[in-house]
Amino acid sequence: MPYIPFSAMAGLKCQSLTVHHDTRGHFVESYRSSHAPFIVQQHNVSYSGAGVLRGLHYQQRFPQAKLLRVLQGCIFDVVVDVRADSLTFGCHTSLMLYGPEYDNDEGASQPHEQLFIPAGFAHGFYVVSDGAIVEYACDRTYQPGDEQCLLWNDPALGIAWPTTEPIVSAKDQQGMTLHQLVQTGCLPYL
Prior knowledge:
The protein is mainly beta. The chain is built from two helices and 13 strands. The protein has a six-stranded antiparallel sheet, with no helix packed on it. Strand 3 (about 20) and strand 4 (about 25-30) form a beta hairpin. The longest helix has 6 residues, at about 180-185. Pathway: Carbohydrate biosynthesis; dTDP-L-rhamnose biosynthesis.
């Protein structure tokens, strides 16, 4: 289970996972400490319905690295580099992430992958399927009051979301543009 880079952004990696199917269901080895880029301090699972967009989130004073995968469903996943000293600052990349039910031997199969997101990236996703269960393993615990939100539809980012009218929380609708985050000193401390 080696980690492989999937974009030009330093540290961002995508790992293919093997799904073992049989008549009972499926089995996936999703974590092995010898292959992990960090020690897990917090583990989260979220459920989101169809059309939900979450993000783009990061922690400022206590930035988190994350290992993320979809347990069920399909998401359009986006990461934005908000590391002030990075050559790719302000750039974003996206990919589709699929739950293990999409990885099978029957016709058009989609790979089951997990994404490693280093500290200093804003992260968000849009649920493409009827619903999605997403799991996050983090290298630091969540710190209330430290979360920042980069506005999901900031025109300066040019993210090609697969919708123009997602279901977004009031908090995420109040996110700041990248320019506002820079001007107010709200970039992550790395």
